[in-house]
Amino acid sequence: MILPVYVYGHPVLRKVATEIGPDYENFSELHTNMWETMYHSDGVGLAAPQIGLPIRLFVIDGNGLAEDFPELKNFKHTFINAEIVERSPSKVMESEGCLSLPGIREEVSRPDRIRIKFLDEHFEPRDEVYEGFAARIVQHEYDHIEGKLFVDYLSPLRRRLIKGKLNAITVGKVDVDYRIKLPK
């Protein structure tokens, strides 16, 4: 089932998400719905807070970007209860967008290499190192389960310059091809 994407201004996007276990009710259905919602929305990743659930779960499929970023070939993963345990000191600036911030793309500086521990969709433990754009996408989705958005990394001046766009999102003045859930 395709679910609505919660957009900027909704309080669930600012909550630090809680861990889940293999007994999480209807996990399999939720997992399937997240993939469907992400693909329908033309996203590369989707975190549970973006569909209104403050739990530590996100999915990523970078295959669509593999032509430009070879490290994303066959990069399709589910991350449960993720924790970034290492970040490289070197950073890279790249443009980012987000399904919860439609119509906004900004340059964001992020570490170019991370190490992350998580459980996969079978609740098996994983400990992985990602570099390049794969590291960026994981950090972007990870931020969602930490209650952060990519605009939080912008300078105060840059945030002031996009304030009108952010305010427009909160009242639904956006043009998207997917269902959205506005703040109350």
TrEMBL record:
<dbReference type="InterPro" id="IPR036821">
    <property type="entry name" value="Peptide_deformylase_sf"/>
</dbReference>
<dbReference type="InterPro" id="IPR023635">
    <property type="entry name" value="Peptide_deformylase"/>
</dbReference>
<keyword id="KW-0479">Metal-binding</keyword>
<dbReference type="Pfam" id="PF01327">
    <property type="entry name" value="Pep_deformylase"/>
</dbReference>
<keyword id="KW-0378">Hydrolase</keyword>
<dbReference type="GO" id="GO:0046872">
    <property type="term" value="F:metal ion binding"/>
</dbReference>
<feature type="binding site">
    <location>
        <position position="140"/>
    </location>
    <ligand>
        <name>Fe cation</name>
    </ligand>
</feature>
<feature type="active site">
    <location>
        <position position="141"/>
    </location>
</feature>
<comment type="similarity">
    <text>Belongs to the polypeptide deformylase family.</text>
</comment>
<comment type="function">
    <text>Removes the formyl group from the N-terminal Met of newly synthesized proteins. Requires at least a dipeptide for an efficient rate of reaction. N-terminal L-methionine is a prerequisite for activity but the enzyme has broad specificity at other positions.</text>
</comment>
<dbReference type="GO" id="GO:0006412">
    <property type="term" value="P:translation"/>
</dbReference>
<keyword id="KW-0648">Protein biosynthesis</keyword>
<keyword id="KW-0408">Iron</keyword>
<protein>
    <recommendedName>
        <fullName>Peptide deformylase</fullName>
        <ecNumber>3.5.1.88</ecNumber>
    </recommendedName>
</protein>
<feature type="binding site">
    <location>
        <position position="98"/>
    </location>
    <ligand>
        <name>Fe cation</name>
    </ligand>
</feature>
<dbReference type="GO" id="GO:0042586">
    <property type="term" value="F:peptide deformylase activity"/>
</dbReference>
<feature type="binding site">
    <location>
        <position position="144"/>
    </location>
    <ligand>
        <name>Fe cation</name>
    </ligand>
</feature>
